[in-house]
């Protein structure tokens, strides 16, 4: 026997004994802790003992050919692990939802039992020659069937697991996969070579050591931290070697197949294939695009991300959401939030101008760069708006059109070497801005992760800019609305005065010769003039709800003025009068009561009275206007009565009730309404008494201190 014939059996015995000791020790240690695997703990311990027995069996029968004892032990080992896999499936209920699981395991168990029967029959009979070779190949095929079936089950066990259960299956599945993958290679080589490979079989103990280590890691408390994290250089080199190996195997396989095909042109076809394959390898493999695709693919799937996205998002939120007196303007915060991603020290924000071109909107730490009035023309924006492409200006300067097709960059950006990148801000397929980043201290090429993060933050920033533009437009619209409201109020008051002047002019044609009429006309003209002056003085209050000034007003004077206004209309009846003094504005109070009485007259029949009464109500003077008109529904009172520019009258402005309520509020009072359809309405105006002014002032000051 040669030295090599002695070496391999000795090595195999040593590894098998090591594997048996490791697996048996793990099984003994795990037995009192088997609950860590739940209801799978018991089967795992049994399978580990069977694996230890298998290691001892093959160590005792290291004779170079298969015998019954190792075969029996291996079958028992396989059956034990198949049962463990089934219990893993059952632990999360997939043995019921995946109907083929139980039949597959039963079929594999049947193959193992069949193999044992064939193996036992072969050991009891003596065969020679071709029949013995067929028997050997049949036994090996049985093993291959079980091995492939086990690998398929392991793959389905881990790949189909839920996210919660997958961490607990990672290491057990890895150990079983290693065990059966080793057997797959061993039996494949044995089948192709027609003989038992002693050199490879000597390392079967390594599989036992691997499964012991995997299950030990599975019960470790820090198992989630035990992940393979190779460096990028190692991964790139390993992957390159793997690609080269696969390529060589493919070439050899195809060439071997062509040689088996035979024929007169077989040699020529084989040489042609090798030539084309070599040319393809020389052209494609050195390509920058292919190598770049390999790197991006590996980086995406083999490494944790460069950025800590939680930290990046928190920093972005702090930057863009900062407020207060010391906070930077929104434009500068937009630039800073994007520049922080790439460590850029400065940047610009370009925003659409009146004609759609981009103009300078804001600078951040970049005061020295000269930006033209038209920073980027309209024709250059279509590509950015359509694709959202993040542009590396160094590629544009180098003339590399392959990385930036159709991109038009202004000359002022290309001439300034500090300008480094363009990040478009797209919101709902509309370009709302462009950020120009300055060159950082350490320049690197953008990769897929930079693009992804910048694109997401750019979209978020674009939404902030779009929202800010909407708020500015809304504020401007509000200012125009306030202006229109003031004009409407002015027109409403002027219409009332114009009605008085028209009535005065018609009556003057009939009664101008009467001294009493002329005296009345002078009073009316004086009152109208005062109201016009008050209207001009009050124009500034319509935007903020204020009155010209608050003063002590005798209530009887207001009641007399209102009654004088309607003296020719017998429907208006002053039902109750009290000598009170309120703190308010006389013209505003008269205007409110006149409006309410006029509304009561409009809603009532020609013979239906409208009552006006005033009384004391606690700290307030209570003005009450009561009519028996058509009334209003609760829905109208709640949703339409005090809504400006909504009127039920033909030609009405719909601001009388709204203006009346605002005037009463400006006098620290309240306007209340009660109405029933078909019965009439009651308007109640409460205005603070002058004697209670100190109390109201104290309440107001207290509220301000609390606020």
UniProtKB/TrEMBL annotation:
One of the GO biological process terms: phosphorelay signal transduction system
The reaction(s) this protein catalyses: ATP + protein L-histidine = ADP + protein N-phospho-L-histidine
SUPFAM superfamilies: ATPase domain of HSP90 chaperone/DNA topoisomerase II/histidine kinase, GAF domain-like
Any one GO molecular-function label of the UniProt entry: protein histidine kinase activity
Transmembrane segments: 6-31, 43-62, 140-159, 171-194, 200-219, 239-259, 265-285
Keywords, alphabetical: Kinase, Membrane, Phosphoprotein, Transferase, Transmembrane, Transmembrane helix, Two-component regulatory system
Taxonomy, superkingdom: Bacteria
Domain Histidine kinase: 489-691
SMART domains: HATPase_c
EC numbers, comma separated: 2.7.13.3
Top enzyme category: transferase
UniProt cross-references to Pfam families, sorted A to Z: GAF (PF01590), HATPase_c (PF02518)
Entry-linked NCBIfam families: PEP_his_kin
Record's protein name: histidine kinase
